[in-house]
Amino acid sequence: MLMRPFGSTGLQVSALGFGAGHIGSPDQSEPDVQRLLDVVLESGINLIDTARGYGSSEERIGRLLAHRRGDFVLS
Fold it and tell me: Can you give the pTM of this predicted structure?
């Protein structure tokens, strides 16, 4: 995966990011969201876009990826 500098932060992020809006929906099961996030990170994507308006996506990301916190950047 092509990596790029994230502004002047010193962080390197993937050229492609993952928009997490749909994982905040109550229609998405926790196991399905966990598998999706694992696939995203395993593919080399480390930039995850989330926002307050995305339902519970922020809470789910925090809960499901706490053990991998050093592997991704939230935006």
Answer: 0.88
